[in-house]
């Protein structure tokens, strides 16, 4: 077909695959609507050729009447006019009609298709009940007609004959028939697509492989591959269609690049023709048929080909809902076309490319605005800002070319050039003729006059102003006003551009923009602003040394002028020099009033030459110390690192981002309020010292004076009462050291706030030194501290205590002395110590120790040591409390257990009267007793022994000597020692046991008052170092009252006890002494014979499970209180194991009736021999058998807890004191034989 026939098909862009219909046209017409609607409803999976991914597509078709002219001719590669499927429609059910007409028509139709090589056809037979009723006489069964058609035409392709039953009825049979037909049509269409597109792509690739042969034409290949793109677009596969255009774009680009490298192609000659038209892109048509025809004829220029190719890509991208990719591709296209024209050496009129780029940018932007709403455009403005900037740049170039951007009017040559450029635009396109804002009208009006050009140029900048990168193009607008001779308006846009460069961190554009700003300020006569900018440029390392010297000379020229001294120009210090380090001498940054403190500043000069400074000063903010805080403040020390503060600042001309600048840090200081009497802490708090930086609103995200400021603010120097000053300083380029002597007359805090350097009539001022630094001048009260020379302090041994006196503001005069009031349990040993070259005299009395102090100047430290001794308490009764010399009660030291050490601690308090205060200082020293001492009473029948255990709980090894034990109340009592060694080693964490036997003549006293004494000293010291140690204790109820003997008798007829046989346990309890006066008599009774008796409770138990008690295991006996009275009890026991078994444990307890008073709790240091007691379920008076109920305690009541809580008096059990009951069979054993049962064992021997 010719082009006139193709244009309507291509231009509508609503093409569908062509399907021809032959046969009964009336029948097809009746079914067309249903067929056209139902065919695209269900998607089909289409697997394309060349490995394309499967996709689901909806098939549509353009059903047309069959004509032989529609069939493709030889060599025709147009796919849009290619019929993909041919259908023959018939509803014939009459044999005669089929044979006479239908068969011949089908045969003619099939022969026509066969002659044109088309094998994609199908025959549809429609069967309805109406047809059957009309031809009742000659009709055949449907299967007969179908079989005949299949045998005549579909012999080998039975699936090409489809039956449609009752298509106009709504029945299940009709629906099923329709679904089968639609599925068949979709399948045949897909098969035809795959086959024909595959054949077409093979031919297309074959044609592309011939591109190296002579005579190959890119335009012919372009039309072939574009036909494939049309088919994909027809199937709504826009991504595949876009791929075809991208491949054409890449192929053409490669040929252009090869041409630039010297590899030419003959067909490129047509694209090297001079550019005659530069009307820009046309994106308002789906297809620009004029440019397509020129490409088909091989007459298109480079701009025509690129414009048409991009218009097709733009259309497909908008179909794919990717409009922002259009802007990206458009910007690349415009830049690439300019380069391709240069590579191909195409002749272009000056300004023509600028017109084409400007029109194309606006065309793309208008196309995007037409398919997106304003919200989307605002949210994606970053995608369009490049096009706006490019259009602005080209419009500016056109204005300069045509003489429209100048202080002069355009010349005749400029006017002729303007006319030539407008002529190359041609006539306006019909699509934009009625639009008042078309790119064509804007460009034509902008080039018409100077006023119109400025108006349009500014309108474009106003449009860009709302975009994200508006400030980036402000510099171009500033240059426009500079050329127009308006520096004031130019400076405004330069400042906006400067902010963008600073925030983004662009160093070189920042320097260039500052130079332009300096030029504007100089023209406007703004002296201070010009000097500030010149200072920034003088310290900018991006400039050459000569340029930097030039700008610094501008500052020196102004500084050398003689004018009004009170009206000096103030500039920012950060652009002149930077404070990099500050160091205090001494490093503590704290000095007493009148002391000497130096401040060393390290300044890094940013200027390119040496600078002579008349005066360098630092203002000081002074805060008076109001008292209440004793000692030095920790605030200044917390901000110093060995007296040095580093200031990390960047180059102010480098334009660092605001995020890189340091933020203010909380500067906290501790404030304490102490009592003037005893220096105790009353209250404490935290104060923020830089609230003026933190609690205020910032206009930007950085602190003041930070290097990312666009133009550092000029501030005035605040004159303070006190300042650090130094005269005639020369700063060399780089680091310089300046030393100040700080004032230290009045106590308080001195904070460095500002820094000022004076150079003639110019002052460079740093408004705030950050971080805040300062020093302290203090007036300190004298302080006396007492601390052990070594830890811990051991009681009983001389210990060294260190006294440290900080004189503070007080001058120690001759005759001043410290009066120490101490207790007699901690005497201070007399000695004479040297403090430096002076003698320290110590005089001690009974309660007061006087220490004379040598003369000492203020703010000095005096240290001396005293030897003290803490006497270990003996445990005797303490005297009443006394009073110290200051009238306070002297509390006796009391020992207590310390949680961090096993040693017992003793707190010794003393009072110190100082000559500089009317109040006494109370101090406490903690001593630790190195020993733990325990005693125990041991018995062997009537013989008594006393054992004392001394445990060393300290970390020091000791030697014990002269160990003694005495009894103070009974002279007839004799204590015989079994301790043979005179000196014994007592190592750390070890114990020493000492033993004495108690001997008496008449009667053994019931109570003994004993004193254990020994001398001790650390190991390897002479005898003079031994110190006494005493330990007092009391032993009560030491007389043995009862003896218990037990015997186990074997069963009758047995010589020894046997395992499992019951044996007799005979227990004999004997009273050894008469009833003494000290013995409790509440449990005693008098029987009918006049004898006094007492009740005892016995219990037999075996905790080791060697014996089983048969029968009763406990009971009560009435025991006479006369000497040698005996009571025997027999208990049946059975051994459970064979061997030498220990006797069962026998316990004897006191039974106290309910009328007896509650006994006092025994001494906790004493050990209860029978510590596991039993309670009886019944009253003990009934003598009933009981089971053993184990309980721990000293006094046990018989009865329920409820009765005891109600206050009902109940009988109770009380254990005897250690030594009152002696068990002779405590460690005795008895032989138990195994059972005599016989066992038969069979053994086989071979």
UniProtKB/TrEMBL annotation:
GO BP field: early endosome to Golgi transport; intra-Golgi vesicle-mediated transport
Region feature (Disordered): 1186-1206
Cell location: Golgi apparatus
GO CC, one annotated term: TRAPPII protein complex
Entries under Pfam families matching the protein: Ig_TRAPPC10 (PF23604), TRAPPC10 (PF12584), TRAPPC10_1st (PF23036)
Keywords: Golgi apparatus, Transport
All copies of domain TRAPPC10 Ig-like, residue ranges: 785-927
Transmembrane segments: none
Start-end of Low complexity biased regions: 1188-1201
All residue ranges annotated as the TRAPPC10/Trs130 C-terminal domain in the record: 1006-1233
InterPro entries per the UniProt record, alphabetical: Ig_TRAPPC10, TPR-like_helical_dom_sf, TRAPPC10/Trs130, TRAPPC10/Trs130_C, TRAPPC10/Trs130_N
Superkingdom per UniProt: Eukaryota
Every TRAPPC10/Trs130 N-terminal domain range: 14-326
PANTHER family, sorted: EPILEPSY HOLOPROSENCEPHALY CANDIDATE 1/TMEM1, TRAFFICKING PROTEIN PARTICLE COMPLEX SUBUNIT 10
Protein name, as recorded: Trafficking protein particle complex subunit 10
Species classification: Eukaryota, Metazoa, Chordata, Craniata, Vertebrata
């Amino acid at each position: 077909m010719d082009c006139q026939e193709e244009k309507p098909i291509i231009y509508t862009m609503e093409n569908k695959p062509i399907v021809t219909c032959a046969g009964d046209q009336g029948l097809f017409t009746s079914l067309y609507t249903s067929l056209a609607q139902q065919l695209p409803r269900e998607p089909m999976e289409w697997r394309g050729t060349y490995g394309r991914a499967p996709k689901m597509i909806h098939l549509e078709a353009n059903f047309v009447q069959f004509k032989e002219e529609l069939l493709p001719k030889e060599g025709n590669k147009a796919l849009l006019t290619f019929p993909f499927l041919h259908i023959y429609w018939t509803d014939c059910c009459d044999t005669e009609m089929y044979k006479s007409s239908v068969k011949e028509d089908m045969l003619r139709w099939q022969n026509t298709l066969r002659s044109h090589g088309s094998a994609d056809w199908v025959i549809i037979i429609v069967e309805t009940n109406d047809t059957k009723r009309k031809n009742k006489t000659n009709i055949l069964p449907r299967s007969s007609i179908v079989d005949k058609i299949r045998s005549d035409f579909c012999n080998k392709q039975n699936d090409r004959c489809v039956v449609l039953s009752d298509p106009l009825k709504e029945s299940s049979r009709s629906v099923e028939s329709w679904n089968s037909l639609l599925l068949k049509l979709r399948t045949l269409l897909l098969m035809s697509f795959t086959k024909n597109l595959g054949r077409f792509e093979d031919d297309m690739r074959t044609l592309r492989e011939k591109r190296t042969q002579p005579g190959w034409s890119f335009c012919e290949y372009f039309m072939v591959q574009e036909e494939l793109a049309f088919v994909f677009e027809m199937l709504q596969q826009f991504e595949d269609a876009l791929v075809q255009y991208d491949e054409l774009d890449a192929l053409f680009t490669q040929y252009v690049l090869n041409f630039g490298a010297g590899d030419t192609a003959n067909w490129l000659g047509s694209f090297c023709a001079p550019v005659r038209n530069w009307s820009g892109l046309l994106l308002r048509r789906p297809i620009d048929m004029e440019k397509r025809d020129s490409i088909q004829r091989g007459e298109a220029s480079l701009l025509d080909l690129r414009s048409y190719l991009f218009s097709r890509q733009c259309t497909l991208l908008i179909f794919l809902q990717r409009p922002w990719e259009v802007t990206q591709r458009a910007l690349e296209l415009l830049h690439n076309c300019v380069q391709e024209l240069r590579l191909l050496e195409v002749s272009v009129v000056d300004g023509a490319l600028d017109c084409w780029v400007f029109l194309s940018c606006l065309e793309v932007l208008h196309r995007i605005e037409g398919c997106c709403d304003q919200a989307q455009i605002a949210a994606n403005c970053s995608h369009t800002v490049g096009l706006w900037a490019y259009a602005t740049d080209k419009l500016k170039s056109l204005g300069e070319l045509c003489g429209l951007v100048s202080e002069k009017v355009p010349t005749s040559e400029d006017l002729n050039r303007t006319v030539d450029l407008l002529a190359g635009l041609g006539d306006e396109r019909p699509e934009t003729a009625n639009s008042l804002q078309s790119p064509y009208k804007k460009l034509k009006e902008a080039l018409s006059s100077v006023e119109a050009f400025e108006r349009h140029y500014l309108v474009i900048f106003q449009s860009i102003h709302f975009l994200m990168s508006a400030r980036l193009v402000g510099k171009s607008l500033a240059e426009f006003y500079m050329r127009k001779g308006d520096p004031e308006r130019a400076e405004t846009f330069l400042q906006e551009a400067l902010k963008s460069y600073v925030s983004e961190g662009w160093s070189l554009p920042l320097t260039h923009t500052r130079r332009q700003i300096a030029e504007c300020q100089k023209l406007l006569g703004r002296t201070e602003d010009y000097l500030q900018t010149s200072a920034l440029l003088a310290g900018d390392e991006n400039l050459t040394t000569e340029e930097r010297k030039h700008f610094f000379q501008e500052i020196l020229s102004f500084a050398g002028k003689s004018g009004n001294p009170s009206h000096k120009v103030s500039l920012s210090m950060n652009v002149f020099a930077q404070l990099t380090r500050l160091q205090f001498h001494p490093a503590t940054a704290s000095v007493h009033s009148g002391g000497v403190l130096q401040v060393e500043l390290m300044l890094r000069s940013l200027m390119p030459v040496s600078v002579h400074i008349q005066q360098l000063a630092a203002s000081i903010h002074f805060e008076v110390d109001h008292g209440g805080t004793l000692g030095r403040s920790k605030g200044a020390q917390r901000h110093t690192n060995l007296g040095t503060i580093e200031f990390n600042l960047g180059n102010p001309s480098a334009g660092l981002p605001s995020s890189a600048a340091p933020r203010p840090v909380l500067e906290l200081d501790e404030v304490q309020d102490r009592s003037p009497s005893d220096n105790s802490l009353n209250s404490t708090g935290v104060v923020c010292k830089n609230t003026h930086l933190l609690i205020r609103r910032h206009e930007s995200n950085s602190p003041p004076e930070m290097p990312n400021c666009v133009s550092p603010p000029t501030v005035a120097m605040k004159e303070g009462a006190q300042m650090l000053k130094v005269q005639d300083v020369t700063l060399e380029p780089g680091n310089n050291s300046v030393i100040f002597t700080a004032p230290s007359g009045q106590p308080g805090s001195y904070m460095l706030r500002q820094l000022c350097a004076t150079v003639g009539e110019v002052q460079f001022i740093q408004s705030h030194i950050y971080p805040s630094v300062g020093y302290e001048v203090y007036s300190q009260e004298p302080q006396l501290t007492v601390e052990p020379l070594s830890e811990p302090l051991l009681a009983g041994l001389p210990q060294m205590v260190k006294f440290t006196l900080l004189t503070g503001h007080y001058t120690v005069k001759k005759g001043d002395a410290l009066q120490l009031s101490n207790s007699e349990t901690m005497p201070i040993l007399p000695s004479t110590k040297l403090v430096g070259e002076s003698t320290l005299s110590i005089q001690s009395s009974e309660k007061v120790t006087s220490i004379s102090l040598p003369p000492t100047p203020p703010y000095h430290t005096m240290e001396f040591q005293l030897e003290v001794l803490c006497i270990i308490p003996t445990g005797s009764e303490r005297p009443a409390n006394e009073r110290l010399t200051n009238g306070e009660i002297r509390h006796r030291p009391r020992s207590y257990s310390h949680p961090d050490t096993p040693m017992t601690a003793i707190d010794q308090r003393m009072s110190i009267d100082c000559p500089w205060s009317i109040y006494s200082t109370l101090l406490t020293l903690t001593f630790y007793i190195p020993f733990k001492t325990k005693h125990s009473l041991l018995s062997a029948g009537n013989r008594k022994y006393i054992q004392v255990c001394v445990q060393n709980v300290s970390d020091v090894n000791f030697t014990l000597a002269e160990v003694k034990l005495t009894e103070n109340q009974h002279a007839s009592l004799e204590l015989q020692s079994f301790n043979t060694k005179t000196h014994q080693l007592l190592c750390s964490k070890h114990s020493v046991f000492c033993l004495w036997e108690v001997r008496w003549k008449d009667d053994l006293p019931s109570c003994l008052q004993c004193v254990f004494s020994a001398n001790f000293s650390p190991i390897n010291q002479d005898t003079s170092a031994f110190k006494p140690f005493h330990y007092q204790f009391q032993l009560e109820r030491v007389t043995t009252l009862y003896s218990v003997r037990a015997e186990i008798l074997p069963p009758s007829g047995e010589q020894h006890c046997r395992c499992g046989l019951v044996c007799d346990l005979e227990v004999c309890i004997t009273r050894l002494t008469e009833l003494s006066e000290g013995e409790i008599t509440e449990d005693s009774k008098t029987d009918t014979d006049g004898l006094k008796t007492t009740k005892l409770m016995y219990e037999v138990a075996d905790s080791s499970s060697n014996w089983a008690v048969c029968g009763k295991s406990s009971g009560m006996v009435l025991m006479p209180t006369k000497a040698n009275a005996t009571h025997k009890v027999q208990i049946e026991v059975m051994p459970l194991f064979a061997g030498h078994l220990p006797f069962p444990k026998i316990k004897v307890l006191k039974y106290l009736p309910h009328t007896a008073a509650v006994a006092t709790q025994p001494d906790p240091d004493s050990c209860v021999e029978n510590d596991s007691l039993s309670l009886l379920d019944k009253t003990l008076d009934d003598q009933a058998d009981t089971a053993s109920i184990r309980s721990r305690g000293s006094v046990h009541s018989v009865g329920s807890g409820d009765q005891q809580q109600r206050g009902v008096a109940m009988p109770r059990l009380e254990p005897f004191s250690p030594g009152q009951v002696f068990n002779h069979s405590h460690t005795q054993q008895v032989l138990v034989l195994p059972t005599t049962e016989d066992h038969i064992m069979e053994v086989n021997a071979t």
